[in-house]
Write a structure and sequence with these properties.
- The chain has twelve helices and 14 strands.
- The protein is α/β, with parallel strands linked by helices.
- A five-stranded mixed β-barrel has the order 1-2-3-5-4. Strands 7-6-8-9-10 form a five-stranded parallel β-sheet, with helices on both faces.
- α4 runs parallel beside α8.
- The longest helix is centred in the C-terminal third of the chain and has 43 residues.
- The mean pLDDT is 86.
Length: 397
Amino acid sequence: MEEQTAVSVTEITRQIKQSLETRYPRVWVQGELSNVKFHTSGHLYFTLKDEGAQISGVMWRSRVQTLRSQLQDGMKVTVRGAITVYPPRGAYQIDAEHIQPSGLGELQARFEALKRKLAAEGLFDTARKRVLPEFPESIGIITSETGAALHDMITVFARRMPSVELVVLPVRVQGTGAAKEIAAALADMNAFGGVNLIIVGRGGGSLEDLWAFNEEEVARAIAASRLPVVSAVGHEVDVTIADFVADLRAPTPTAAAELVVRDRRELLEVLANMWYTTRRRTEEVLRAERDHLHQLSGSYALNRPRDLLREYLQRMDEHTRALEVSAGHFLRHRQESTATLAGKLSALHPKNVLKRGFAIVRARDGVRTRADEVVEGESARIEFHDGSVAAHLEKRL
């Protein structure tokens, strides 16, 4: 027997792993799911098979969270991922990035196309979103009358706010004609006018099951509603066109009921706190006013008002006398100042000045106040305090 160079199991497995993973970094594989298991770690394990073969598969937790459909045994799917080798078992598997039920590629393309169209028209804009009433008295519900969603919402309303009125319009939520019924129910609820807001939705399901809420006529009926609309379709991971157009998107029907009404017990607690705060503040004000009144009741002014009045009158008399004295001094000072000024003015009067021996020489063109102003030979009048005389000025000396 010819000797051969042997390799270890680990080495041959490593070579196979390198070869397969290099050749198949990304593949699309169609088949039927079996042995679907969601592990407690959050990872998904499954087998993908057809008539002639099968391959194991794994999807890690971070990607499981992005799944848009509920996976189950027997479902036809298309898996996108990479071929990898798991050395401990010497088995190859597909490391799944995305799992899509078969036949949904066209639906997904229609979804994206309608989403782009309505977004371009502004139907998703935040500015057009209507504000939900804080305390609705009546709520319209559009959903299947046989589904768990209606029962769950009624249970929440009965617990949180039993006084709220519920108006239910039952419709088909999947299958042929479902979208038309939902759109018509939205129009009827607006025409009815007896509710404050509308919840439209259903429980979870596959993309095909939820498709009625991706139809254009439903989206436009929500946009045309004059009443605020809350979409409550499927589970938290399910997103529909109706969610984008609605005024509020609730992750589930149960969550929708919790979002649109306040819990009665919470409101009662708030009212109780307000009552307690108001009562405490009122008692504080009354206590302060009572203390102030007590202080006033013991004051001198309230106990002996006549004595207080006499004291004020006495003070008024004293102020009056002081004012009279001050006014007298002021008037005497003014009189003395006036007399002094009068004496000065009298002494400076022209007639009184002339009495002291002065005279005024008046020529034809005015009074002569200096000798060099006299024109020799001119006539003048000399005024004294008791009369005047005519004079002829011959020359200056």
